[in-house]
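In this supplementary section we document a worked example of the pipeline. Step one takes a protein sequence of length 233 as its only input; no multiple sequence alignment statistics are reported here. Step two produces a three-dimensional model, which step three serialises into structure tokens for compact storage. The input and output of this example are shown verbatim.
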Amino acid sequence: MTNTITKANRYELVKSLLYLSAISSVMIILLFSNNDIEVRNTENIVNYLSEITLIPNTVTSVILGTRLFDTIGEVTVFTIAGLGVKILLAHEKSEKSLTAIKDPTLISLLDFAALLSSFLCFELAIRGHLSPGGGFASGVAGATSITLLMITGRLKRLERIYSNYQVISLEKIAVIAFILLSIISFASYSPLLSFISLPQNLIIPILNIICAFKVTVGTWSIIRLFIIKRGIL
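The serialised model returned by step three reads:
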């Protein structure tokens, strides 16, 4: 049993190191690549974004048309952080007993805060592209709600959900879907690939929702690992 666990930990460590090496290589190449930027006609770009998003408000159309780049960067940074946590805690032993918050008044207050965070999560995921927020902020709100439930004694119940519904697999599916939709979104800027394009005012909200799910589940995975390895209190 010990040998099996050790092999699994080594496999995860090697896989994480490979991911980090690949991402680092790309970042280093971009850092030292030529940065010859051509002069762009900003007015034409703004007008073009207004046309493809079908939104007369140019500020909103610019946000809709360019926010994808920001979201991709956020997801990349978050993924690297998750890999770092897995590497950091890979060889630590799990806590034998976990002590959660037991004060009834405090639990009620945290439950109320968790409910508000969950509402905020759905609001930012669905309407985040129209206001400050978006998929990443929505995922943080969703993870906050789950964390509050974990520290108030629901860890075992959430662990059953985590295992029964294969949350890790769902997170990977969300990442794949996010990448595919991003490619389709980028392709919409190319006349040669217009046949696979989708309206920006449809694809951006979908990307926000997928990103929100990925960040929620990914943060859940990171925090539960901290709790299992180092305890709640």
